[in-house]
Amino acid sequence: MTLSQSLLRSRAAERVRAAHPALAAKFDLEDADDLLAAQSEIASLAESFDTQAVVVLRSFSLAAWVRATCSFAAGVSPDRAVRWRQAFTRTVFLAGNPDQLRERFAFEHISEDGSAAWRGPEPASESAALRRLLKRFDSARALPIGPAVRIPLAGPDHGSRARHPARRDLYVATSGMALSAYLVHVNHLLVEAVMDGLIAPGDELTVRELPSLVGVSVPFASLRIGVDACRPDRLRAYAALTEEITRA
After folding, report:
1. Helices 5-19, 78-86: inter-axial angle, 10-degree rounding
2. What is the rounded CA–CA span in Å between residue 52 and residue 36?
3. Does residue 211 come out as left (phi exceeding 0), alpha (psi in the -120 to 50 range) or beta?
4. Which residue spans within the chain are E strands per DSSP?
5. Order of strands across the sheet with 167-173?
6. Are residues 212 and 172 in contact, defined by beta-carbon separation less than 8 angstroms?
7. pLDDT of residue 159
8. pLDDT for res 156
9. Which of 58, 52, 95, 7 is nearest to 187 (CA)?
10. Regions in the chain scoring below 50 on pLDDT
11. Could you tell me the sign of the dihedral formed by the alpha carbons of 44, 50, 51, 56, in that order?
12. How many whole angstroms separate alpha carbon 166 and alpha carbon 64?
């Protein structure tokens, strides 16, 4: 798949339509200027889409975090998922120790290693006390490219699965990306893929980190797209989920 600017605009437009079909109809989302205008208008209406998730992060372990992110997203009720998607799956990352907070604050999900905890998605007022207590998780640490990591996702027994388990690759373009940005980009991709049924409990993901996704020829089912920080007039693919990989 060639990640041309035209393709990136088209995929970004799909995300806008999924979140706000009525608003999207006001713009020609295939046009670069109109796409930016639509995103700007949505951002200006953010308060009316007052829904966000909050993640308390003690430390970052890729496999545990990916598994827990998918498990949390799979547990979000359909009505909350609709409101969260209207807010473009806004998620706030806070630095803290979930073990020291669980008696004071309720969490919907805690990772298997206790390094991260999720609550919401909910109105911002519901998590205000937690957000006042903790600072934003703001790590500017550059990420070295790591080896491929195979991550089986927690899931139900075979007999209770809604469909057969799928295998997909998750590509992340790490060039110039700090850990804080890594969390944001991959979080958006994962939770929206869960909402769209691309990822489900019992599936398997393999995370593959590269400097850039340009030149990767496999077909992508989902892309995380944003403005290129080095070239604000262009879009960049920050992460991508492949189509299902057929088992040999």
Report:
1. 130
2. 22
3. alpha
4. 52-57, 91-95, 109-110, 116-122, 135-136, 149-152, 167-173, 204-210, 220-228, 231-242
5. 149-152, 204-210, 167-173, 231-242, 220-228
6. no
7. 47
8. 58
9. 52
10. 158-160
11. positive
12. 19
pTM above 0.85, yes or no: yes
Q: What is the DSSP letter of 147?
A: P
Name residue, tokens 């403005």.
227
Q: Identify the helix (H) or strand (E) that includes residue 128.
A: helix 128-133
Place of tokens 């550059």: 142
Interval 38-68: pLDDT, tens: 777 776 766 667 899 999 999 999 999 999 9
In a 13 Å sphere around the CA of 9, the CA atoms on its Cβ side amount to 17
Alpha-carbon distance of 229 to 139, in angstroms, equals 17
Tokens of 57: 């992060």
Q: What is the percent of the chain with per-residue pLDDT over 70, rounded to a whole number?
A: 92
Question: Which among 92, 231, 136, 228 is positioned nearest to 173, based on CA atoms?
Answer: 228
Q: Checking phi first, is residue 180 left (phi over 0); if not, alpha (psi -120 to 50) or beta?
A: alpha
Amino acid at 54: V
**Cα(225)–Cα(11) distance, integer angstroms:** 8
Q: For residues 114 and 97, what is the distance between their CA atoms, to the nearest angstrom?
A: 8
